[in-house]
C-alpha cells in the first residue's frame, strides 16, 4: 500500500473512533475540507470542530468500498452511518476526493448522498 493510501486509511480509522489527534496528524496545517454547497472549512482548527459535528451523537460507522490513487489524488468511495441528535439516523454513501501533499491530506472534497431522501442534515 502506498504512503498516501496508508494516510487515508489511518484518517478513516481515526474518524471511526473520533480520535481528534490521529485525524489531525493526517492533515497539512492549511487543510481545506469542502462539501460543495454545504460548507468549506480551512485549517486544522476548523477541521477539528467538524470531527464531532454538533448534529450527531457518537462516532460514525464508515465502510470503504473502493480506494483509488493516481499521483497525489486518492478517491474513496464508501458508506457511512451515524445517529443524529434529532433522532434521525444517517445512512449515506459518499465519494471523498483527497488531494495529498507529502503524504498528508491537503484538501478533502466530500460528496455525500443520503439513502433516505427525507433526511435533513441540520
From TrEMBL:
Family annotation (SUPFAM superfamilies): NTF2-like (SSF54427)
Lineage top rank: taxon: Bacteria
Domain named SnoaL-like: residues: 8-106
Family annotation (Pfam families): SnoaL_2
Transmembrane region(s): none
Protein name in UniProt: Nuclear transport factor 2 family protein
Phylogenetic placement of the source organism: Bacteria, Pseudomonadati, Bacteroidota, Flavobacteriia, Flavobacteriales
